[in-house]
Amino acid sequence: MDDNNTPNGLPPIGKAANSPVRARKSMLDELESNPSERPSVRNEDVLSTEKTWTSIAYLDPSRSKTLFIGLLLTAVFYLGIYSGGATLPEEGVFSYVVSIFMKPQNLIVVIPACVLFFWGISILILKRVSLNKQKRALGLSIIPQDPDFILTAETAKHVLARLEKSFDSPDQYLLLRRIRISISNLNNIGQVSDVSEILRAESDEDVSRAENSFTLIDSFIWAVPVLGFIGTAIGLSLAIGDFGAVLSGADDLSSIKTSLGAVTGGLGTAFETTLVGLFLALFLQMLASIQEDDESRFLNDCSVYCQETIVSRLRI
User: What is the DSSP string of 208-267?
Assistant: First the structure.
């Protein structure tokens, strides 16, 4: 037997350093042996390449967009008021209502109240458009309707492929996002209850997001009547000040009667601005309640859909 070879065909231990066969090293071993060759990572590089995670606002439109629409609606409203006010008769309910929005002493309160009101209306309009879009997902057959269909880790891959093929961006729909998240990692899920927990967490998140989307509208419902009460305080202060001037400067009863017009004008501002604020807030509150109820029904329908089409067909 050759002394240079061992019975196993391996080089002798003493000659391992002279052997052409080298032990294979990993990348981490090479980095440890050559610390100077390690790539340097600067903090600014990490910050610049870090991915920013943002929540998807399915039923919460852009604030700047709705503000622009609200200002536009306010301008259109006042354009209609001033153009239609000239054609209305001097007497009548409509003429009185139009005069409330046209009186110079009322504008300091009425215009901001109208801006907040129409801003809230624009939010509700866009929320309604988004809700109608989201409701269309309930009519899609993403999960096969065959009663014998069983959702497993393998069949889930076909469902996800079907989802990606049918839509360019499935996550634009709240329901499809729930489906994708719940079945995309069935290989890592041990029990059906785990999928139910994922769906429950997604449902709670969507409910919380929908409730938060009404925060701005709720502030408008509070602020509009407050503006009306501010108009009341302004009108009363004007009336009281004018009444004091009338009493101090009047010499006879006829002059007092003549000067009482300024006093009644201040009282008119007080009550008219309050009327406008309460009416706008009431109308906005009714529309917001209807929208909030419809969104709650939609979210409940999504939960029922996921329970019947996903959880009930899972076999893990």
Answer: HHHHHTTHHHHHHHHHHHHHHHHHHHHHHHHHHHHHHHHHHH--SHHHHHHHHHHHHHHH
At which residue do the structure tokens 């866009």 appear? Answer: 126
Q: Are 65 and 73 in contact (CB under 8 A)?
A: no
- What is the block-wise mean pLDDT of the chain (316 residues), using blocks of 10 residues? 46 44 45 49 46 65 94 94 72 77 85 95 96 89 79 82 80 87 75 82 89 94 91 73 57 56 59 88 96 95 88 78
CA 292 to chain centre: 13
CA neighbor of 62 nearest in space, from 122, 112, 135, 136: 122
Query: In the chain, which residue ranges form alpha helices assigned H by DSSP?
Result: 27-33, 43-49, 63-85, 93-102, 104-135, 153-166, 174-183, 192-212, 215-249, 253-309
Q: How many other C-beta atoms are found inside a 10 Å radius of the C-beta of residue 158? A: 10
